[in-house]
Amino acid sequence: MGIQVLLPKTDFLVLVDKVAAVRALADTYIGTSAGEASTMAILAKGLRNAILTDLDDWSQVVDSAMGQQAQLTFDACVSDAFIQDVAQNFINAMEGHMSKAGSTVSSSITSISTYCVYYNNDTGYSCLMSPEFYDILVNVLGKTITDEQAFCIVTTLAEHVDATGFADIAAVGSAYAEMDIEGYVSVAFEGMTGTGAVTVTGDDQTGASMDWTGTLPENAAGTTVVTLTPDTPGRRCRDVTAITIADQGQSAGTLQVRTVRDRALPTS
After folding, report:
1. All structural domains of the chain with their residue ranges
2. The dihedral of CA 54, 56, 60, 65: what is its sign?
3. What is the pTM of this model?
């Protein structure tokens, strides 16, 4: 057999996003813990309880054997257990491919993590894993991933509230790459007599202070999204340190600054 050709970056992202989408669906419809009230977990728990509690004492031998099987069914209806079964072979095959074919591009590529490191260093942010796939690798399968090889889930970094002004909510976690950001009017927003210039100041990927600017539309109201553009193109945000809104007048409500997903997960 000839030398394998390393999986192209675009194909890699398509494949891992499909696995990530399965994770998201499993969390929604199966549940992420044994106590979670999902349809499948409730049915499995009902089966287990019926076997373990509703049979007479004389059937304890049968009860025990059936109970063990029901526990396996119950456990399989937890998202982590389901995903471990579904994703383990795929990820093992992917890691094996990286180990065998990675050297055709760079001797540094030996795993999924080092594949992402190579391409993200070569062309910044071009090979970030989705957070759902990162979660499978790290929290379900126990893989070690070099920091900042995934983009984070949509997170509110800071907000501007009429009554209290600026509030620092969170920073992008150290495991995740810096993010593009947007403004979001999340609560009844009042007092704008015209368009309002928004300036968000924060730390970019170089550690330097950077401004992102945008414009609130006239009569901005709930669910209004404000595009925020960095003064230096291509800069992404790790933390927000200040928000100012021009004096056309926020008199009520909240403007949030939140992160933006790099890619949506596939739906089919």
Report:
1. 9-140, 156-259
2. negative
3. 0.77
Q: What SS3 class is residue 253?
A: coil
Amino acid type, 128: L
Three-state secondary structure of 10-31: HHHHHHHHHHHHHHHHHHHHCC
CA 168 to the chain's CA centroid: 21
What does the pLDDT look like over 144-197, one tens digit per residue? 888 899 999 888 999 988 767 899 999 999 889 999 999 988 666 665 555 678
For residue 234, give the DSSP letter: T
Q: Closest Cα to residue 103, out of 120, 118, 88? A: 118
Question: 79-101 vs 60-76: helix axis angle to the nearest 10?
Answer: 50
Q: Which residues contact 159 (CB under 8 A, 6 or more apart)?
A: 166, 167, 169, 186, 243, 254, 255, 256, 257
- The residue behind tokens 């419809």 is 29
Spatial neighbors of 155 by CB under 8 A, at least 6 apart, are 170, 172, 179, 258, 259
Which of 27-31, 199-203, 258-262 is predicted least confidently? 27-31
- Nearest-5° Cα angle at 164, 259 to 228: 30
Q: Please give the structure tokens belonging to residue 139.
A: 């929290």
